[in-house]
Malate dehydrogenase
Amino acid sequence: TPTPKRIAVTGAAGQICYALLFRIAKGDVYGPDQPVILQLLDLPQAQAAVRGVVMELEDCAFPLLVDTIVTDDPTVAFRDADAAFFVGSRPRSKGMERRDLLSANAEIFRVQGRALNEAAKRDAKVVVVGNPANTNAMILAANAPDFPTENVTSMIRLDHNRALTQLAARAGVAVGDIDRLAVWGNHSPTMFADWTEAVSGGRLLSEIIDDETWYRETLIPDVARRGTAIIEARGASSAASAANAAIDHMHDWIHGSDGKWVSMGVHSTGAHGIPEGLMFGVPVVCKDGSYERVEGLSFNEFQNGMMARTIAELEEEREAVAALLG
Ligand code: NAX
């Protein structure tokens, strides 16, 4: 049998992890033949709750789950990790300013970046889910100077999946038949779900649907507001679908995306007018354990306007945490 893969997960007592951990242990990330070890991090006051989740993991008798470590020490959690899901973060409390939220999380990701730098395997794959996910990932990478920046990513896959379903329904095509969809920018209401290149069965979705007003005034804002709609309906934020998106993100990065575009938050190289160094949602193609950014797209005026909005927001976030970038 192969050597077990070590998967670090932060925020293990939280609601996303209550869906995520069971799917990792079932084999949904690495596949049905790969044993895994879970290395679970949460705050000291959440340790008892994490142990409760571990009891439930045990009660599933997952054949692939060979060990589970529970800790409040990031260095222990990230030790020799092959993959890491950064789900835990500080939620906004009552009366907290956006700037305070940014800096509270920046401090968490600074500490965890140093631990990642010290303890994880150099080829570990990292995805940041905890909000503000893009900027947290940027801080994490900046504080892990000996760890490859390319291996630190943020999650925008939930938004990608949300857009896929809405486009498929409107076009009357199967979700799996859509390719070349992109979700650009920040995982926030400024994100840009972009159908310009999207196709199904060789035809542009914009031609099949043929309703630019629906695209601009319904699809784009509905994808951006979907998280709020779920909170209103469920009384809690998206959890199972967020866990599923994190699994999709990591699974495709490891196993490939079959030539298809998927959206990932990655370190900007300056392409497509995105300022270098921002962690930015872009279309990529995953192959052989890595991802390649889709390059050479040219944008129309509408796209440029949408890109400018989400770039400006991420630059503001970068400004707010500048002191903690390294
Ligand atoms: P919960 O509040 O249920 O769980 C968060 C867990 O993180 C708690 O157990 C808490 O103790 C732990 N935690 C806090 N600070 C920590 C630290 N420094 N180290 C380790 N653990 C720490 O939140 P949940 O619903 O699970 O959501 C987790 C995060 O995902 C939130 O930041 C949320 O905003 C974000 N989301 C991101 C999404 C994305 O697409 N990128 C979508 C879903 C979700 O909203």
User: Anything to note?
Assistant: The chain has a mean pLDDT of 97. The pocket of NAX is lined by residues 10-11, 13-16, 41-43, 46, 87-91, 108, 129-131, 133, 155, 158, 187, 237-239, 242 (CB under 6 Å). The chain is about 45% helix and 20% strand.
